[in-house]
Write a structure and sequence with these properties.
Layout: H1 2-22, E1 60-65, H2 79-90, E2 95-99, H3 106-110, H4 115-131, E3 136-142, H5 144-153, H6 158-161, E4 164-170, E5 194-197, H7 203-206, H8 221-229
Parallel strand pairs: 1-2, 1-3, 3-4, 4-5
C-alpha cells in the first residue's frame, strides 16, 4: 500500500509541476489534479535554464538538478530562487550556475534517478573541476535531482570530491527509511558539508503523508543559501 501511495503521489507531483509551470492561470484545471491545491509558481526567479559552465571561470560553480517533469534545466520550484539568493550574496560575476540537462521523467525516479542524468551531472562536476582549478564547487538537487546528486557524487574521484565545498538537497527520495542520524551519504562528501531538507508529510522523502508538502521547497532557499555561503 505504501509503495502504491508513493507512486500515486509522485504521479500527482509530476502532473502538478507541469500544470503549475506550463498552464496559464486562465486555462482550465486538469481534472486529475483538480482536488489538490497547486502552489503558484511565481516569476520571482530569473530563469528555468542556466548554462554558465561554458563561460568564464568564477569563484563558485553551482550545479543543480531539477525535479521530475520540471522545465528547463534548473526547474522552477527550487533552483531559480536558490540561485537568485546566491547571486545576490556573491554578485553575478562571483558564481557560475549550471543546470543538469536530463529527461527528468517518472521512470527515471523509479530507477533511482535517471541513468543518463547521473552521467550528465557527473560530467558537469568533472568539467568544472578540470577547466576551473580554483573554483569552489557546490552541487544541489530537488526530488529526482537529489537522487542524481547522490549517484553522481558516488562516481567522483577523491580529488574531485575534495573540490565540492557544499551540498544542498531537497525532498530527497533517498531519505525514505532513514533517520536524521542515518541520512544517506552523498558519495564521499563529508556529512558536515551536506544540508538535506525534508518536510514533514512529504511522502517523497519520508515515505508517508502526501504530495502537497513536496511542492514548497522554495521556502527553504534562504536557509540553503545561508548554509552554502557559510562554507565558502
Amino acid at each position: 500500500m505504501k509503495s502504491t501511495a508513493l507512486f500515486a503521489s509522485l504521479l500527482w507531483v509530476s502532473l502538478a509541476s507541469a500544470a503549475a509551470v506550463a498552464v496559464p492561470m486562465s486555462a482550465p484545471v486538469v481534472p486529475a489534479i483538480a482536488a489538490f491545491p497547486v502552489p503558484e509558481i511565481t516569476a520571482a526567479a530569473d530563469s528555468d535554464t542556466e548554462n554558465q559552465l561554458s563561460g568564464p571561470c568564477r569563484n563558485v560553480t553551482f550545479i543543480f538538478a531539477r525535479g521530475t517533469n520540471e522545465d528547463g534545466n534548473v526547474g522552477a520550484r527550487v533552483g531559480p530562487p536558490l540561485i537568485a539568493d546566491l547571486r545576490a550574496a556573491l554578485g553575478t560575476d562571483g558564481i557560475a550556475a549550471q543546470g543538469v540537462d536530463y529527461d527528468a521523467s517518472v521512470l527515471g525516479y523509479l530507477e533511482g534517478g535517471s541513468p543518463s542524468g547521473i552521467t550528465t551531472m557527473t560530467g558537469l562536476i568533472n568539467t568544472a573541476a578540470k577547466q576551473c582549478p580554483d573554483t569552489k564547487i557546490v552541487i544541489s538537487g530537488y526530488s529526482q535531482g537529489a537522487q542524481l546528486v547522490h549517484k553522481a557524487a558516488a562516481k567522483l574521484t577523491a580529488a574531485v570530491t575534495a573540490r565540492v565545498v557544499a551540498v544542498a538537497i531537497f525532498g530527497d527520495p533517498e531519505r525514505v527509511g532513514t533517520t536524521a542520524s542515518t541520512l544517506p551519504p552523498v558519495g564521499k562528501v563529508p556529512a558536515a558539508l551536506v544540508d538535506s531538507f525534508c518536510h514533514v508529510g512529504d511522502i517523497i522523502c519520508t515515505g508517508e503523508g502526501g504530495a502537497t508538502e513536496h511542492l514548497d521547497y522554495d521556502e527553504n532557499a534562504p536557509a540553503a543559501s545561508a548554509f552554502i555561503l557559510g562554507l565558502l
